[in-house]
Amino acid sequence: MEADSLPTSRPLSIESANLTDIIPLYDSISYYKGAAVIRMMSMILGARIFQEGLQLYVTALNFSSATEKDLWRCLNEAANNTINIQQVMDGWTRQAGYPVVEINRIYNTSDQEGVGSYMMISQKPFSLLPATNIERNPWWIPFKYFDRTFNQ
């Protein structure tokens, strides 16, 4: 994550037609952030749909070149177009860095049971250099939560 938090960091996905430009891109960002993004896609879609999407991708593009958009299309198709994977994943693959997420629970003070309380969730780009002002598009972040009725 350190390499992806520097001002010199690059996006995970870069379009290049030149092989000499591609080889240096096999670095820690490709492997570690790439693996994290794949795990996130599997979590969002569910293991079965994710597997079906990958099978469709490999079958449809067998022995041909493929792009990131081809993968998104196959995953969307496996999910019956219930989610726009490209919209979800572009923030993670098309821009450098990652967010710091802050979650604050706001309690309804008039109710002892916590009914009416809510959470305020915000994000900002992380940087190792504190004075760095980084403007980025927001990331789509999967978020799961449980309330007190979870095991009832």
Task: Describe the protein's architecture and organization.
By secondary structure, the chain is an alpha+beta fold. It has a domain at 3-93: Neutral Protease, domain 2 (Orthogonal Bundle). The chain is built from 5 helices and 2 strands. It has helices at 19-22, 28-45, 47-60, 68-78, 85-93; strands at residues 99-106, 118-125. Strands 1-2 form a two-stranded antiparallel sheet. The longest helix has 18 residues, at 28-45. The radius of gyration is 19 Å and the shape is flat. Residues 1-92 form the Peptidase M1 membrane alanine aminopeptidase domain. This is Peptidase M1 membrane alanine aminopeptidase domain-containing protein. GO terms for molecular function: metalloaminopeptidase activity; peptide binding; zinc ion binding.
Shape: flat
So what's the CATH class of the domain at 3-93? Mainly Alpha
Query: Helical proportion?
Result: 25-40%
Kindly report the spatial arrangement of strands forming the biggest sheet: 1-2
Count of DSSP-assigned helices: 5
**CATH fold name of the domain at 3-93, please?**
Neutral Protease, domain 2
Mean pLDDT, as a whole number? 86
Number of DSSP strand runs = 2
CATH level-4 homologous superfamily of the domain at 3-93? Neutral Protease Domain 2
CATH architecture of the domain at 3-93: Orthogonal Bundle
- Unreliable stretches (pLDDT < 50, length at least 5) are none
Radius of gyration, in Å, reads: 19 Å
* Distance between the ends: 38 Å
Structural category is alpha+beta
Strand content: 5-15%
Instruction: Give the biggest beta sheet.
Output: 2 strands, antiparallel
What's the SSE pattern? HHHHHEE
GO biological process, one term: proteolysis
GO molecular function, one term: peptide binding
Pfam family, one: Peptidase_M1
GO cellular component, one term: extracellular space
